[in-house]
Sequence to fold (749 residues):
Amino acid sequence: MRRRSAVTPASPLLSETRTSADPRVAGRLAALGRFCYRQRRWVLGFWAVVLVIGVLIGGRVFEGTVAGASSASAESDRGSAVVAAADPARGTVTAVVDGRPVDDAAVRDAVTRATAEIAALPGVSSAVDAYGPGPGAEALRSADGTASVVSVRMADSSTSAQATAVTQRLAAIQSEVQPGGGKVTVGGDLVLQDEVKKQTEKDTRFGEIVTLPLTLIVMVLVFGGLAAASLPVIGAVASVGGALLAMFGFSKIMDIDTSVLPIATVLGLGLSIDYALLMVNRFREERGHGASISAAVERTAATAGRTVAFSGLTVAVALSGLFVFTSPVLGAVAAAGVSVVVIAVAAALTLVPALLGFAGRRIRTPTAPVPDEGFFSRTVRRVRKRAVLVALVCTGVLMAAGAPFLHAEMRNSGAAVLPASSAGRQVAETIDQRFPQASAAPITVVVQSGATVAQAYADDVVAGLPGVSGVRAVTPVSDTVSTIDVLVHGDPQGGEAKQVVKELRADRGGLTTQVTGGAASVVDFQDELLTRGPIALGLVALGTLILLFLMTGSVVMPVKALLMNLLSLGASLGALTLVFQDGWFSGLLGFSPTGGLETFIPVLVFAFAFGLSMDYEVFLLARIKELRDKGHSCTRAVELGVQRSGRIITSAALLMVIVFAGFALGDMLMVKQMGIALAVAVAVDATLVRCLLVPAAMSFFGEFNWWAPRPLRRLHDRFGLSEHVELPELAPAVLPTQRPAEELVGTAS
Fold:
């Protein structure tokens, strides 16, 4: 039985604890915090189950993903689907036999024997080598005569086990050709897909292993103790378990691209740590003011909890803009990202209060409140004296940092997303360089007619187009489908190749055609950006403006927040271009630049970086708004708000940078690009923007920051987010010998 009822309040602190249950204060979030504190064993048990199930199915999440999900709305994908329907195949397994003369008798015997055995294996559609009949065999022989290719097509009904058996038999050729210096490397579509999954899983695990201990160390330094520092890490681990569950569910109802998983994981880790950090910091602050553990948890839920919920909502709105696009990769990222945000918010609002109930006594209580004077308040005053100059300089620096993105090139990196040590990448690059007739053409035209009609179209239309260097082959796929391999001058995915794609689509010769290939897929994606990008941007901007208005009651601050976030976003995209397109620091980061950015990466960076920038904007504005509601002038509210939140925002940003940098150390190019871009975005936003540009802009506008037309003010009074209400002032912090009675008596029998 509970014994708390037997205690008679005997101090101002206990009176305050009762006051905190007043209906004016005990809003929905405060009530949730109180419930999770009282039922902390059940809450902890629930999240433990989530974590265990998430860990158990974690490996299966990667197995259910697909590498390169296709879109039914893109012509390049529709053309590939037509070819697949006419001649279904699951994919290819390819081996390069190098280092010994192709005509060496031992090499010939080993390769032909392996090809014959593989052709007889179940699940194999065809197996060809450089020694077979027909003109196609010549394309499988290198110009210098020291390397050849064995190409195996797997039937559409084949299984992974059957593909593995083919891979093992091809690899076994190594033992027969090695004595003479021969080497066999096995790759192909199916091997590449498998390597992408394995490398992505490896990088994700590596990122988690590296970042979690580092974040724990930083938080120990921030909080000065292990108890407080461990709570955000526990919350982050539990959130990752929930995120894995959510993504496993999505993989059952939609195609989840392999690249989605590390992106969603890094977002979940970063947000979970940020939100838990904010909650624990506010809890310590309330304890420093003299609140008991239960009162501090309740007040934390009502204040920091509201900020967390609102921040999560803004990040979710930013990610929801990705639903506008038809690309399956972007749609999957949106679905996974929004679910991860919801889980991170849920963990912060439920698990963290429960953990505070268990560890509250072990968390070091500040001996004094956060001082009103310090580095951040002094910085704000200095900025205020030269607000216009600071704003202009910061804006100029951010615009200059974003300028390189103006010459960014989009491309599909293909096998180059894998590290140079990847066998699949080595095979793909070897075929491109030494077997040009066997490599994939830059552009492929799918003609839904017989080979004779397709050949006439190739001779009369395709070959005469400017930019086309030649037609390599016209291949009948079936009686009604043929393909035309088109070669182009210059970069296979460069501007000239993209122009050829547009010309082929403009002149189809009266036939039913689909233009596919690497250049065509880039053109399709860029067209989608031009048509749907403005809609997505408009919806995200509108949703953000509405949310920030509901929080602040101002129309000025939401507009300023949007503009400043765009500036920091531009700096991130500029850095992305310099590093991954122009090759800055490529040696240090361990990758080879591909001459462009992966097509969908800038879109993802925009959504994620925009949401994270708003995350810190909410952290700061919530504190300024709280001080403003207490009667402080705009100038003083900004000064105190930056002073009281500056340290925690900087700490949160540092932790987020650690998380993103940990994932950037992986070998997958797409994950590396996202990690670097988001680390730069967070670092710029938490320093240059929040510490200088925001105070400068707010100082420049003064009381006008809070302006809104009268009708909108009435609307805010009625519908504004008002979960946080004026909290009663707490008594001064109690001395160690004056512990609250509820702690001396206990909360349960």
Remarks:
- The CA atoms of residues 224 and 668 lie 36 Å apart.
- The beta strands are 89-98, 124-128, 147-155, 183-187, 410-411, 443-447, 468-476, 482-488, 513-516, 597-598.
- The longest strand covers residues 89-98.
